[in-house]
C-alpha cells in the first residue's frame, strides 16, 4: 500500500513518542562530528593556493567516507526504533563493527557523484576573481549561488534512486555497497516522485525554524529521518501490519479508560 506523506508522518510521530531525547542525541552525534571535521579542514588548509584547495577537498572527501559510516549507523538506530526493537546510541557504531568497507564503497560512489556535480561551482569559485568593485563582487556572488544551487539540484536528482541504500545494508549484512545501491535503485522505481513530495512537505517546518534561531531543527531533523524510515518500511510492506494503527487505537482506549475512571 502506498501511504501518503501525512500518514507516514503520523507513524513517525508515534514511533518518536517518548524517544525524542535519544533521537536528538543521535542526530547531534552524527552531524556534529561532520561539522567539526569541516571546521578542522578550514583551519588546517588556509589560503587561496590551488594545492591547498585540492588538499582541503581531499580531506573533506575522506572525512565524508568516515562520517558516512556513522550516518549509516543513525539509519540503523532509527530503523530499530521504528520497529520497536532495542535501540541506543551504540547503534551509531553498528557499521564500524559490521563490514564498514561496504558502507565506504557506497559512500565513495555517492561522494564521487557529489564531487562531480559540484565541479562547475568549485571551478568558478576558485578560479574566477570576484573583482574590486561592488558591482563585480555582487555579480560573482550571484553566479556562485546559481552554480551552487545547480549542483545541489543535480545531486538530488542523480542520488534520488539510492536513498534506501543504508537501510538495505542495515537489513542485509551480506549485501555489499554496489549491490545495495542497485537494490535501492530497483526499490525506488515508481516511488521517486512520492519521496520528493514527502521531502518537500517539510519545507514549511524548515522555514519556520528560522524564527527559533534554528533550534527547532533539533526536533524537525529526527522527525524527517523517522518519516524517511517509515517510507522505507512502507516500501517493504511492513506498515501493512498496522502495528502503529493498533498502537494509536490502544492509546486512545487507555486515554478513554483514564477519563472514565476519573469521572
From TrEMBL:
Keyword Transmembrane helix listed? The answer is yes
Membrane-crossing residue ranges in chain numbering:
20-41, 53-78, 103-124, 147-169, 196-221
Q: Does the keyword Transmembrane helix apply?
A: yes
- What's the short name of a Pfam family annotated to this entry? DUF975
Q: Which domain of life is it from?
A: Bacteria
Q: Which InterPro entries does this entry report, sorted A to Z?
A: DUF975 (IPR010380)
Query: What's in the keyword line of the UniProt record?
Result: Membrane, Transmembrane, Transmembrane helix
Q: What is this protein called?
A: DUF975 family protein
Q: Which organism is it from?
A: Blautia ammoniilytica
